[in-house]
Design goal:
Largest sheet: 5 strands, mixed
Radius of gyration: 28 Å
CATH class of one domain: Mainly Beta
CATH topology of one domain: Immunoglobulin-like
Structural class: alpha+beta
Order of helices and strands: HHHHHHHHHEEEEEEEEE
Distance between the termini: 30 Å
Shape: elongated
Helix content: 25-40%
CATH architecture of one domain: Sandwich
Strand content: 15-25%
């Protein structure tokens, strides 16, 4: 039996319609229908397809690992590096080919630089000598109070730990075991956060109706959704995309 058939059977056994399953997984009905027909072309890539399969298995109380194993066998997916998965999940950009600079451009830059230096020397030579000498005492072992702020190190701002576009849904991501890349957006596509969460830190996100998460190292983080801790969404090094709504 194919993966699509297994999902359809599990849904029927759970007495859920496609509409019910779509509401619980936040996956469009059209995509769910195609998945049950073993068509994963509109899932948005292998990473999203695996995320949908895990989400469906969790709602249907099925074996997520078995569903993923069958998916890999049927789709004959090639093994991808962590960099490729991060690129596919839009967490990082595809490296661009380094453009070569023409020697003519380099010559032009050199000529312009020499001209700028020449003009600067002329201006400096025309400056009053007394003014130049008077600047020397400003460099001393005991700077004045006005100079002190420019010499003191800048205080690093504390890391922001909460992001909100509403109050209907709340998700807390705790990097309890390892650091991870995160990309968080709401139902309107607005980006709440894009970057890295360090090990031992936590970030909380709230919005009105739905939060969409892309986690670059799913095994390193723990999730709490609307006050309830949820099961692990993946393993170490795995890129996972999940969505949570008001009823999650």
């Amino acid at each position: 039996m194919s993966l699509g058939s297994l999902i359809a059977k599990a849904r029927i056994d759970a007495r859920l319609s496609l509409e019910d399953l779509a509401a619980k997984t936040n996956i469009r009905i059209s995509v769910l229908s195609e998945i049950e027909k073993d068509n994963f072309a509109h899932c948005g890539g292998e990473t999203y397809a695996r995320g949908h399969i895990r989400n469906i298995a969790a709602v249907l109380k099925a074996d997520q690992k078995e569903f993923i194993r069958i998916y890999d066998e049927e789709q004959a997916s090639e093994v991808r590096s962590m960099k490729q998965l991060l690129v596919e999940a839009s967490v990082m950009r595809e490296p661009q080919e380094v453009r070569k600079v023409s020697w003519k451009v380099l010559v032009m830059i050199s000529v312009i630089s020499l001209m700028v230096v020449g003009v600067a020397q002329i201006i400096i030579s025309n400056t009053n000598t007394t003014d130049v000498v008077s600047a020397a005492p400003a460099v001393s072992a005991q700077p004045s109070e006005s100079a002190a702020p420019s010499q003191s190190p800048k205080t690093q701002p504390s890391a922001q730990s909460s992001f909100s576009t509403g109050t209907g849904v709340e998700v807390t991501i705790d990097a309890s075991r390892a650091k991870s890349w995160l990309f968080i957006s709401d139902a309107q596509g607005r980006t709440l956060f894009s970057g890295q969460i360090s090990r031992g830190s936590a970030k909380t996100f709230t919005t009105d109706s739905q939060l969409n998460l892309k986690v670059g190292n799913a095994g390193g983080v723990d999730l709490t959704v609307n006050g309830k801790k949820v099961a692990a969404i993946g393993v170490d090094g795995e890129v996972v995309s999940v969505s949570y709504g008001v009823d999650s």
